[in-house]
Design a protein that fits this description.
The complex is a heterodimer. Chain A is an alpha/beta fold. Chain A is built from eleven helices and seven strands. Helix content of chain B is 74%, strand content 3%. Chain B has a two-stranded antiparallel sheet. In chain B, a hairpin with a 3-residue loop joins β1 and β2. In chain B, α2 packs across α3 and α7 crosses α12. The chains are: A alpha/beta, B mainly alpha. Chains A and B meet through loops of A and α3 and α4 of B.
Chain lengths: 231, 313
């Protein structure tokens, strides 16, 4: 499974464009809004997008990124090509994105986000199980394994969700994503953005090795993101 | 129909076309013993000039307001690049918000409305004081003067200085010739770019003594003198396109080229300090807007004041 994934990934981005996807879209109205919003986010965040040893692909992936700003979900999502964006669901905090009508509309109708309740995690209904059930055999995920936004731009310890996710579904490609400078565009605690330039880097996919311990896997994943900063 | 502007634009297009053709021919001859990196740089530079030329021509055709808006957008983008490369702290965030969304647009609105009394002091006085006070209000005093000075410098160079370029268009307004303003702006941009090109050329041909090796190994005394001399001659020969007399056009070209050089060496110094080769994206190897307009930023206010002196007396 992983092997075929990396072979497919050799194609250039425009070749992976699949027009049949447009016909299968479930929500054409919010697709237009979404495309406009993505374009706006790209201009506002001045994001240059880099794919290093990795190509856009519609295979099932988990994009995991560092987290510094409320705009992170929007910019990673908008950095993906349209066809892939339609198949990708961000995982976001319910306490922020379920507040107010505009936020809820954006989260549920445009990003098709999975809202996770950070305060009330049930044992029998763990977020990892919910995510896996929701993506089925077609969709991909965007996750922020730090759990909350960092205050100083440093990348914090990863929560264990990523580990359990790939333990239950070892076939998912884990793609590290580094978001640079977003903490200066909309820092924690601010509500007005400053339009600086940012950079989104997608790195080479990785997988959970058989028998790899949790701590070393999470550290390896964290290094994979950190390394992209100067790649 | 005014013949001067079409002649000027036609001449520039002919030179650009010839240089582009030469660059493409050089690219297809890898065995000619030429430095392929230099040829590539040359071709990239040609592309930037085509873009600059077509943007400027399109804006001028649409009128003065469109030209002011174009320069406003360029300023906004340049400031974006400048602040991105400047380390700021959380305490600067709200001051920066007002710098980007209030002072920058206001400066260009005032230029468009020709309120010289306002746009000549808006940034050096009011934005200057505002930035200091707003950062102080945030309560973060660490390296206070250093942080505020960096924001002020960015705003002055990228917005205040550059806004004097579109302001040039309004200077000869009281003269009988209606196209003189647009031609003056075109002449100004042309001389700055010619100055850059001539200095590069003279430096390649005769350059030996480097001016500041720690900042830029390509800038030599021979390149500077040769470039300034050649551009002054060319600028003087183009006096018919300007509202100036021959001697005024000569002084103008000389001053513009010297200021252009000062701009490009200054911005190189800032880049060296930040450890990057180019402004623009955070990615190495892509040059940004600010790399292309550094000499224009420095030359614009001086050209503006000199023109004011020549035309108003």
């Amino acid at each position: 499974m992983p092997l075929s994934g990396s072979l497919v990934a050799r194609r250039s981005p425009w070749q992976t464009w699949d027009w049949s996807l447009l016909a299968s879209l479930e929500r054409p109205g919010s697709m237009v809004t979404g495309t406009l919003l993505a374009a706006m986010a790209r201009i506002l965040s001045g994001a240059s997008v880099r794919w290093i040893d990795c190509q856009p692909d519609t295979c099932q992936r988990v994009y995991f990124a560092n987290h510094t700003s409320h705009l992170d979900m929007l910019v990673v999502w908008s950095a993906l090509p349209l066809a892939i964006r339609a198949l990708t669901r961000p995982v976001a905090a319910k306490d922020y994105w379920d507040k107010g009508r505009i936020r809820r509309y954006m989260a549920t109708k445009i990003f098709d986000a999975m809202l996770i309740d950070r305060k009330d995690i049930k044992v029998h209904q763990s977020p990892v199980d919910v995510m896996l059930r929701e993506i089925g055999n077609t969709k991909s995920l965007i996750v922020f394994p730090e759990g909350s936004r960092s205050t100083n731009g440093e990348i914090g310890e990863f929560k264990s969700g990523l580990y359990y996710l790939s333990k239950k579904r070892p076939d998912l490609e884990l793609v590290p994503v580094h978001i640079d400078n977003m903490n200066r565009i909309l820092p924690r605690g601010e509500f007005l953005p400053v339009p600086l330039l940012s950079c989104i880097t997608f790195g080479p996919p990785m997988w959970l090795e058989p028998g790899e311990p949790k701590v070393s896997f999470l550290e390896r994943a964290r290094t994979a993101v950190t390394r992209l900063k100067d790649a | 129909m005014d013949w001067k502007m079409p002649t000027l634009v036609g001449g520039v297009l002919t030179i650009l076309a010839a240089a582009t053709a030469a660059g493409q021919i050089l690219k297809r001859q890898p065995d000619a013993g030429l430095n392929s990196a230099a040829v590539q740089t040359f071709n990239l530079r040609m592309r930037a000039w085509w873009l600059m030329c077509s943007l400027l021509a399109a804006a001028m055709l649409l009128g003065n307001t469109a030209t002011v808006i174009l320069f406003g957008l360029i300023s906004f983008w340049a400031l974006r690049e400048f602040i991105t490369l400047t380390p700021t702290r959380l305490g600067d965030h709200r001051a920066l918000f007002w710098v980007f969304f209030a002072f920058t647009p206001a400066q260009f609105v005032m230029v468009g409305l020709q309120y010289y009394e306002v746009y000549s002091v808006l940034i050096p006085v009011y934005a200057f004081l505002f930035i200091l006070a707003r950062v102080a209000f945030s309560g973060d005093y660490k390296r206070f003067l250093e942080r505020t000075a960096k924001i002020q410098a960015g705003l002055l160079i990228c917005v205040y200085c550059l806004s004097h370029a579109p302001a040039l268009m309004y200077l000869p307004a009281k003269r009988p010739d209606p196209g003189a303003g647009a031609r003056l702006l075109f002449f100004f941009v042309l001389i700055v770019q010619l100055g850059d090109a001539m200095q590069y050329l003279a430096g390649k041909l005769f350059g030996r003594r480097v001016i500041a090796p720690t900042i830029s190994p390509n800038k030599t005394w021979e390149g500077l003198l040769g470039g300034v001399g050649a551009t002054t001659l060319l600028g003087t020969a183009l006096y018919w396109a300007t509202p100036f007399q021959v001697w005024q056009a000569a002084i103008m070209s000389l001053v513009i080229t010297l200021m252009g050089f000062a701009g490009s060496i200054t911005m190189s110094a800032i880049k060296r300090d930040r450890g990057v080769k180019d402004y623009g994206t955070l990615v190495e190897g892509h040059s940004g807007v600010l790399d292309r307009i550094d000499s224009i930023c420095f030359a614009a206010p001086v050209c503006y004041h000199l023109s004011r002196l020549f035309l108003m007396s």
